[in-house]
Write a structure and sequence with these properties.
There is one protein chain. The protein has two domains: 24-43 and 161-351, Naphthalene 1,2-dioxygenase Alpha Subunit, Chain A, domain 1; 44-152, Rieske Iron-sulfur Protein (3-layer Sandwich), CATH 2.102.10. 24% of the residues lie in helices and 30% in strands. The chain is built from eight helices and 17 strands. The protein has helices at residues 24-27, 29-40, 163-171, 191-198, 205-208, 210-213, 293-321, 337-351, and strands at 44-49, 58-64, 67-73, 79-83, 97-99, 103-104, 111-112, 118-120, 142-145, 148-152, 178-187, 216-225, 229-236, 247-253, 257-262, 265-275, 278-287. It is globular. The protein starts with 23 loop residues before the first helix and ends with a helix. 36% of the residues are buried. The structure holds fe (ii) ion. Residues 197, 204, 208-209, 306, 310 line the site of fe (ii) ion.
Length: 354
């Protein structure tokens, strides 16, 4: 169990007198292990999009926060998820994506049905008391949220508390959008720096994203925080620009799911740690069915510019935290409520006894 102690963030103070967490939260191997074991492996994680599993037998395999998984639709069309770890030697039983009627380990040929039961294992005659039911793949809880498929990587169930933000997204017809583009960014910062940046209530937008800010009405910026999620909204005053038309929704679900819904599009960002000081951000862009290729291309370019500005500043924060002179700072009480709640939820998970 990693040591806690003098780096503790005081979650009891009100936002007006609270201080941000110590640099150890963002740099220390102990906190990295807490992030994995108590935060990321125990919460609902986005692993796939419904469109990727659109028929019986479709499967998709990947690795999230160091944990290999496979999600699939069985012959009845029901979603299933398993640890992608063969019960013989731990190798994967599925790679990439495709359509299949069984999962087969490439190493020694152990095969499993789409319910995770061991079907066949070559040359196992002679193993004492062998019962194939004892060697099923480890199942993971799996659920659908709008167009997303989520699992819990440690295999244990927990509540998914996102009703409030889910309703807002449903009102914005997010399930009717079509997944069109995927991109991955690797950042030289702790994963929580990226989340902090997302949850500052638009604080950084006027100075860091000047092109974007010129289209937004900052007097309309609102942040609502819920038990394990938050919603930031802002109205566009760019009447000519269809890209940002109307109200933009920035949804965050603890710990690492960010959903941006604006105009005829949506992008979903998920950040996971690679090490204490590196993270991976995946972006998936959805568009309304009638968006033209040209519109999509322009939108991706604009989105990429914002993302590059964010990457640069997140990496600068990480370097600053490594300075001899870094000290926890105050929160801007009227805008950084989402960030403060994120830190309070992390502190609760770090101190949880389980
Ligand atoms: Fe930003």
């Amino acid at each position: 169990m990693p040591r806690l102690g003098r780096h503790d963030f005081n979650a009891k103070l009100p936002i007006e007198s609270a201080r941000t967490p110590a640099a150890a939260w963002y740099m220390d191997q102990n906190y990295h292990e807490l992030d994995l074991g108590r935060v990321l492996h125990t919460s609902w994680q986005v692993v796939a999009h419904q469109q990727q599993l659109d028929r019986p037998g479709a499967y998709l395999a990947g690795c999230t926060s160091g944990q290999p998984w496979v999600v699939l639709r069985d012959a009845q069309g029901d979603l299933k998820a398993f640890a992608n770890v063969c019960r013989h030697n731990g190798t994967p039983v599925a790679e990439g994506r495709g359509v299949t009627d069984k999962l087969v380990c490439r190493y020694h040929g152990w095969s499993y049905d789409l319910g995770g039961r061991l079907l066949k294992a070559p040359r196992i005659a002679g193993i004492a008391d062998f019962d194939r039911d004892d060697f099923a793949l480890a199942p993971l809880p799996v659920k659908v949220f709008g167009p997303l498929i989520l699992v819990i990587l440690n295999g244990k169930g927990c509540d998914f508390q996102a009703d409030e933000v889910g309703q807002s997204l449903n009102q914005q017809r997010w399930e009717q959008l079509i997944l069109r583009h995927h991109r991955r960014y690797e950042l030289a910062c702790n994963w929580k720096v990226f989340v902090d940046n997302y949850l500052d209530g638009g604080y950084h937008v006027p100075s860091l994203h000047q092109d974007l800010a010129s289209d937004l009405d900052f007097d309309s910026y609102r942040t609502s925080t819920f038990a394990r999620s938050s919603l930031q909204t802002v109205v566009s005053d760019d009447e000519s620009g269809e890209r940002l038309a109307g109200e933009a929704l920035y949804v965050w679900i603890y710990p690492n799911i960010m959903i941006n819904r604006y105009g005829p599009m949506m992008d979903i960002n998920v950040v996971t740690p690679l090490s204490p000081s590196r993270c991976l951000v995946t972006f998936d862009w959805y568009f309304e069915a009638d968006c033209t290729d040209q519109f999509i291309e322009q939108s991706l370019l604009a989105s990429d510019q914002v993302q590059r500005e964010d990457i640069e500043v997140c990496e600068a924060v990480q370097r600053g935290m490594g300075s001899l002179h870094f000290r926890p700072g105050p929160y801007a009480p009227r805008v950084e409520m989402g960030k403060f709640e994120f830190h309070r939820l992390l502190a609760a998970d770090y101190h949880r006894h389980d």
